Amino acid sequence: MMRPGSVVLTRLLSGMVAVAASLAVAPIGLSDVSVARADKLSSISRDSFRYKLGPGDSLAMSVFKMSGYEARVKVLSDGTINLPRIGTVDVWGLTLEEARQRITEAYEVFLRRPIVYLDLVTSRPVKVTVTGEVGRPGVFSLPTQLAGGWPTLVDVVQKAGGVTASGDLSRIEVLRPSARSGNSIQRYQFDYLTVLREGGHAPNPLIYDGDSIRLHKNEGVNNADLITMAASNFAPDTIRVNVIGEVAKPGVQQVPSNAPLSQAIFASGGITRRGSISTVELVRMDGDGQPTVSVMSFDPSAVLSSPTNPPLRQGDVIVVNRTGLAKVRDGLTDALSPLTPIVNAASIFRILGLPSVIGN
Questions:
Q1: What is the pLDDT, as a whole number, of residue 337?
Q2: In whole angstroms, what is the distance from residue 284 CA to residue 292 CA?
Q3: Mean pLDDT for the chain?
Q4: How far is the C-alpha of 229 from the C-alpha of 219, rounded, in Å?
């Protein structure tokens, strides 16, 4: 029995809704920028995005009431598939409907009004570029067949190591190639910081193959913003910093994201009696690989982002220097070490009126 209706429908997999309906800003030209609150954004048209086939996609094809024409194929690296009777068909960059139409036209050469069905069985991983203020900028490949569903903006940011302490959650950009050739790149900008501060709906748009995500730098970050970002799921759970010098347990410490300097020092067991609380150094590498050294006094009661208790970033090095007296003691010990069999260093300390540190 013929299927009702004269319009041929392409059967899509459940969950493969090839739209960016959850994206929250109307597409604009690459030369324009539009900032909008994430909880007051309108949905874009369903026609703004259609899934395009590429190498790695698995397809199932059949022709209505024609046995021997069934095929389950994978799009090869050159963007082609091989089908019964017609052989190689180029489908790279086509939507499912466009690919079905091309296959139908090929079969019409020797079949009368062929009704072709084309299904996307499994989709290829999503490849996306992440740049800016994230822990690990780069190009990432995310599977699309996980239980959690299709990758979203938050998934990608987490995959890239989370937003850094200097990241701006009020300006997260998604750049997307146009669904139609010849059109300009579409840019979507999201303000999540306002939503996190004031509440409301925060869209979590789907990310598609070829998208680019950029997290801008916040030049005027304040204490409240740092705390807000650290508590959000855009931030990494933990960061690793190195604490060396006069602390009880020097070495790499794992602390919460955007933790203050004091928390890393406490995690390393605190400053010893030989350590100086007035000459703690924070060594940080900038984006150009140049180190910056900040010297400060250690004040565990200082608020986060204050000059004496700044928020830490991945890879920071904290150096707790010795006190002046400890340096003198160490210098005398080194100088007298060759004479140890003859002169007891402890006696020299007593002659100079200095407390002995031998054996400590």
A1: 65
A2: 5
A3: 79
A4: 15
Cα angle 165, 171, 175; round to 5: 120
- Contact yes or no for 56/124 (Cβ under 8 A): yes
**Domains with residue ranges and CATH for the chain:** 52-122 (3.30.1950.10), 238-322 (3.10.560.10), 323-360 (no CATH)
Nearest to 315 by CA among 130, 136, 156, 129: 136
Per-residue pLDDT reduced to its tens digit, 261-318? 999 999 999 999 888 888 899 998 876 678 889 999 888 888 877 888 888 888 899 9
Please list, in sequence order, all residues whose beta carbon lies within 8 angstroms of the beta carbon of residue 322, skipping any fewer than 6 positions away. 245, 246, 274, 275, 276, 330
CA angle (62, 57, 154) in 5-degree steps: 135
Torsion angle (degrees, nearest 10) of CA 29, 32, 38, 42: -40
Tell me the per-residue pLDDT of 42-72, one tens digit each, with 9 for 90 and over: 344 444 567 889 999 999 999 999 999 999 9
Supply the pTM of this predicted model. 0.66
CB 171 within 8 A of CB 133: no
Write the DSSP string, 130-156: EEESBSS-EEEEE-S-STT-S-BHHHH
Strand order in the sheet with 126-132: 138-142, 126-132, 212-217, 167-176, 186-190
Exposure string for 306-337, b = 16+ CB within 10 A, e = fewer = eebbbbbbbebbbbbbbbeebeebeebbeebe
d(C-alpha 161, C-alpha 163), whole Å:
7
Give per-residue pLDDT as tens, 186-205. 888 999 988 888 888 878 88
